[in-house]
Design a protein that fits this description.
transferase; thiamine biosynthesis; UDP-N-acetylmuramoyl-L-alanine:D-glutamate ligase; 277 residues; binds (4-amino-2-methylpyrimidin-5-yl)methyl dihydrogen phosphate; kinase activity; binds adenosine-5'-diphosphate; alpha/beta; single chain
Length: 277
């Protein structure tokens, strides 16, 4: 029998039939990072590299009961939320996080898929802000999501900092505004994720990969952070190691299907093995 104390992580998110985003991306990432993965499904999407072709939300109680089933039996060292779709699901998920007293919580405030499909109802944004963000150790909006949460446009690096401050005011301990959707003038060929911890800012820069195969980048990044938290890393170390994981996954992205392909969840470990050989 292997060590019973393998780190355990839970993803509360939607299913992506194409396997590049959602719970599929999360579970692949947990597995690659040596963490036992569990899922509470909120919705089934009909999805491939060409986009989202259908969304079938589950009854809100289904998510709540899945969380109770794994939380009460197996235990959860860290969790992430992804696609939550509506306010009722958000309320029940937030309630279960409070009841279990979980603190290592990553909220990826998924709103709109890269192809434009709505993964969170507009009227649910308030519930996300009021119910879930106060429970988050780390929240990971992309720039359009940060604009919605902060209630302001982001056109400059200065705007980005102001938005991070406003989102920090909603309760999460750390805000990361991800730079995948565009660079500011001074960023050059770098992609910059802005990290705000309530007092100061850190910019995590990496080379921007020139690719269209970025389906599931946000899911994979937040799952990698969650895996780090499940293993007991500090939030900042988990974010830095998540950044290394996503960079490798994008650099070695998979040209699958006819549209926007997924990232490569093996890339990080394959590179580490190559270094060891
Ligand atoms: N072209 C790229 N090159 C390198 N890193 C990227 C690229 N696109 C996104 N990323 C990284 O992927 C992660 C997810 O960012 P982003 O794509 O903005 O999120 P989302 O999938 O939520 O829209 C961030 O760490 C971001 O810096
Ligand atoms: C079920 C599901 N959840 C999340 C996303 C967001 O994907 P991305 O990380 O590319 O923004 C998605 N396309 N599908």
């Amino acid at each position: 029998m292997t060590d019973a104390r393998i780190p355990r992580a839970l993803t509360i998110a939607g299913s992506d039939s194409g396997g590049g985003a959602g719970i599929q991306a999360d579970l692949k990432t947990f597995q690659e990072l040596g963490v036992y993965g569990m899922s509470a499904l909120t919705a089934v999407t009909v999805q491939n590299t060409l986009g989202v072709h259908g969304v079938y939300p589950l009854p809100p109680e289904a998510a709540a009961e899945q969380i109770e089933a794994v939380g009460g039996d197996i235990g959860v060292d860290a969790l992430k939320t992804g696609m939550l779709f509506n306010a009722e699901i958000i309320r029940l998920v937030a309630d279960r996080i409070r009841v279990f007293g979980w603190e290592r919580v990553v909220v990826d405030p998924v709103m709109i898929a890269k192809g434009g499909a709505e993964l969170l109802r507009t009227e649910a944004v308030d519930a996300l802000k009021r119910e879930l963000l106060p429970l988050a150790m780390v929240v990971t909006p992309n720039i359009p999501e940060a604009e919605v949460l902060a209630g302001m446009g982001i056109r400059t690096r200065h705007d980005c900092r102001e938005a991070a401050r406003r989102i920090g005011g909603l309760g999460p301990r750390i805000v990361i505004i991800k730079g995948g959707h565009g660079s500011f003038e001074e960023d050059g060929d770098q992609v910059v994720d802005l990290v705000y911890d309530g007092t100061g800012f850190t910019e995590l820069s990496a080379k921007r990969v020139n690719t269209v195969h970025t389906h599931g980048t946000g899911c994979t990044f937040s799952a990698a952070i969650t895996a780090g938290l499940a293993q007991g890393l500090s939030a900042f170390d988990a974010i830095q190691s998540g950044r290394l994981f996503i960079q490798a996954a994008i650099e070695d992205g998979l040209n699958l299907g006819q549209g926007q392909g997924p990232t490569n969840h093996w890339a990080y470990n394959r590179r580490r093995q190559e270094v060891l050989q």
